[in-house]
Design a protein that fits this description.
heterodimer, A: alpha/beta, Rossmann fold, 2 domains, six-stranded mixed beta sheet, three-stranded antiparallel beta sheet, 7 helices, globular, B: mainly alpha, 10 helices, binds adenosine-5'-diphosphate, binds magnesium ion
């Protein structure tokens, strides 16, 4: 199921946040969205996930999501959004409880996704006892449990330290290599974008408009640190972003 | 010159030291005992603490204590259960729906500052002099603080968690039951603490009008006869009641809110 964003514009009150966005999101690939902070990346993701309605334009699904998907559009949030009063296993269980599943089927799914995210030993731990990286793995396990057609990831690694971020990026790559999934991955970290993105969409400062779409042909498994193609792309992205970021920064001062 | 860097941190973080509270309590009692025995506290000011204890023991052995206590506790629990229960439900409705919020918040704001004791005569006219008016007073008194605490607590529930629930397609009922309610629980429980203290005040007041038995009635009768031992015995029972309820609530809080850091 591909997605098409069609002439999407959005205003909060008098402030235009997104301006005429047209975008194709191909199945089975990771589309990274980068842009200066406040340019409307999270807002765009909420439209794709159906949590908010744009002022004009629309997000179209081309075809139907796979029938075994319990929740076609599934978010992974920057701040993890785990229920602190539920254990790891119960946090995963939460998103299955509203679906008609036999008890043992649910238990099987939970055990499976916890194993895939290397969390089996922590099934009964509370979120307060987990590190940031583990919390985000719980959120990823929770998303895996509903078999998403499209992953909507809003700066999923931004709250983590650099080492944890590297490890989780490797985890995401190996998850994708096992079963390629469709994802819209919002980030302001260019290294993340070049490491994970098949397609990178650069947004301008507010009101966010598409400035450039870059496709990277290097397969995910072949992306090594120091790869000259990737470094070149990162450099190009940085040039695009720097002016926007500077201008956005000045705007905040004058606001 | 080599000196250690002067220390200027610390403080501002009171810790609990075991036994000090009990010590203060016992010293005050001993001073009162000494003062009343020695005569520099007049016998119309304070009764002998030991006499109060004797009165309490007598009350317990005669079985009258249980009559008073069971009636009072019954009134307290029925009233507080009705009031707090309705308060939590309405508080959640105010916290979640624009219409209930717009409609009821001004009403609650108007009811909140009324000293509920002032309504006792009205409730006696409406519900009669017997139990119903006492339940009504306690229920009404616990209702308003519970509503205010509950909707404040619901307002403070992390909206990203609610959005997470929506993004996974959870039903409205599931979101309320599994995300909003547990998230609001800390605030609701601390509101319940205030409500219970108010309930005890109102219980005593209600029992001072038109009750034969109950701690409030017992205190009123003792006061009318200027029987200081019995008056203080009654007050002691109320104090113990309050401390016990607060302790029980503390245990419930610790259990229910184990997930907090
Ligand atoms: N619910 C909202 N109401 C009003 N303004 C909003 C709302 N959400 C976001 N905004 C504004 O829209 C702009 C884009 O926000 P956001 O999508 O969060 O940016 P990004 O994720 O790219 O940093 C910001 O200026 C923000 O202040
Ligand atoms: Mg954002």
């Amino acid at each position: 199921m591909d997605l098409r964003i069609d002439a999407l514009t959005h205003c909060y009150g008098a402030t235009e946040v997104l301006s005429n966005i047209n975008l194709e999101i191909p199945t089975g690939r990771i589309t990274c969205v980068v842009g200066p902070s406040g340019c409307g990346k999270s807002t765009l993701l909420r439209f794709i996930g159906g949590l908010e309605r744009p002022t004009s334009g629309q997000v179209l699904q081309l075809g139907a999501p796979p029938s075994d998907s319990l929740n076609p559009f599934t978010f992974v949030f920057q701040d993890f959004a785990l229920l602190p009063w539920r254990t790891v296993a119960d946090n995963v269980s939460l998103v299955l409880e509203d679906h008609k599943l036999a008890k043992d089927a649910r238990a099987r799914i939970i055990a499976d996704v916890l194993a895939r995210t290397k969390l089996s030993d922590f099934a009964n731990a509370l979120p307060k006892n987990l590190s940031g990286g583990m919390k985000q793995r719980v959120a990823i396990a929770r998303a895996l449990a509903v078999r998403p057609a499209v992953w909507l990831m809003d700066e999923p690694l931004s709250a983590l330290d650099a080492q944890t971020r590297e490890l989780l990026m490797d985890d995401l790559v190996s998850l994708w290599l096992r079963t390629p999934f469709t994802a819209v991955y919002v980030t302001h970290n260019l290294a993340e974008a070049t490491r994970l993105g098949h397609r990178i969409v650069v947004l301008s400062r507010r009101p966010g408009a598409v400035r450039r779409v870059i496709d990277i042909d290097v397969p995910l498994e072949a992306r090594k640190a120091g790869d000259p193609t990737l470094a070149g792309i990162e450099q190009e992205l940085w040039h695009l972003m720097r002016d926007e970021a500077q201008a956005a920064d000045q705007e905040l001062v004058h606001d | 010159m080599t000196n250690p860097v002067p220390y200027r941190g610390g403080g501002f973080r009171p810790k609990r030291i075991r036994g000090v509270g009990l010590g203060v309590f016992i010293s005050l009692l001993l001073i009162a005992e000494w003062g009343t025995r020695a005569g520099w506290i007049g016998n119309l000011t304070l009764p002998l603490p030991s006499d109060v204890v004797l009165t309490l023991i007598e009350l317990a052995t005669s079985g009258l204590l249980w009559t008073h206590l069971s009636l009072s506790l019954g009134r307290l629990f029925v009233g507080a259960f009705l009031g707090a229960g309705a308060g939590v439900l309405i508080g959640i409705a105010i916290g979640l729906s624009s219409y209930t919020r717009s409609g009821l918040v001004p009403l609650v704001a108007a009811l909140f500052p009324i000293p509920k004791i002032a309504l006792l005569p009205l409730f006696v006219i409406w519900f009669g002099i017997d139990e119903t008016s006492k339940y009504a007073l306690i229920a009404f008194g616990t209702f308003t603080p519970t509503v205010v605490a509950t909707y404040g607590a619901v307002d403070n529930v992390d909206r990203t968690l609610v959005q997470m629930g929506q993004s996974f397609g959870l039903s409205r009922l599931s979101i309320i039951r599994k995300i909003v309610l547990p998230g609001a629980m800390p605030g609701i429980l601390s509101g319940l603490r205030i409500s219970l203290a108010i309930a005890i005040i109102l219980l005593t007041a209600a029992e001072m009008i038109g009750a034969e038995y109950g701690i409030g009635a017992y205190i009123l009768q003792a006061g009318a006869l200027y029987d200081l031992e019995r008056l203080f015995a009654g007050v002691t029972i109320l104090s113990i009641l309050g401390v016990t309820l607060s302790f029980v609530l503390g245990r419930i809080e610790a259990r229910v809110l184990r997930w907090r850091v």
